[in-house]
Amino acid sequence: MKIEIHYQTITDVEPQFIQLTPEEYFDPLEEDETSFETSGIARSEFAGEYLNLRAEELKWTDVRIQGKNSDYNVRTEYYKGGHSMWHLRDFDGTEGMCYTSQISDSRQQIIRLHKPVNSSWQVNYHGIWENEATASETEVRFI
């Protein structure tokens, strides 16, 4: 299995990349699991954690995982003010997109779209999350 994170920081002129082992990228497998390719769960949803970088320091990241039987790719674009957008292409051809917009210090709007193989894009989530001062979160879900 080949795992690479390609990225560009806001100060870099050229993109860079790192390679990770499955043990570095994924959580440890459970006793009944035999393969990172079929059972692996990423340690983090945010690629910057593997790079020791904050979202504010990044222009984009592109996680590329090539397995024996499947490929996976998720590219995230970072924008000023806490906005981001990612695009996922899964091994079976399905696609997903998510746009996150910071609308205040404590509120984020999130819109997720999904595209099954040979179908059209569908919005499957639209909501606003508010992070409370008590470390709890409130969700207002529209879809």
Short description:
With about 140 residues, this protein is mostly beta strands.
Report what the structure shows.
The chain is mainly beta. It folds into 2 domains: 1-80, no CATH class; 94-143. It has 3 helices and 9 strands. The protein has helices at 22-25, 36-39, 48-51, and strands at 2-9, 16-20, 58-66, 71-79, 83-89, 95-102, 107-115, 122-131, 137-141. A 9-stranded antiparallel sheet has the order 2-1-3-4-5-6-7-8-9. The protein is globular, with a radius of gyration of 17 Å. The termini are far apart.
Give me some keywords for this one.
about 140 residues; mainly beta; 2 domains; nine-stranded antiparallel sheet; 3 helices; 9 strands; about 10% helix; globular
Q: Unreliable stretches, pLDDT < 50, 5 or more residues? A: none
Helix content estimate = under 10%
Query: Which percent range describes the beta-strand content?
Result: over 45%
The span between the termini is 37 Å
Overall residue-averaged pLDDT value: 87
- How many runs of DSSP E, i.e. beta strands? 9
Question: Biggest sheet: strands side by side, in what order?
Answer: 2-1-3-4-5-6-7-8-9
Largest sheet: 9 strands, antiparallel
> How large is the count of helical segments?
3
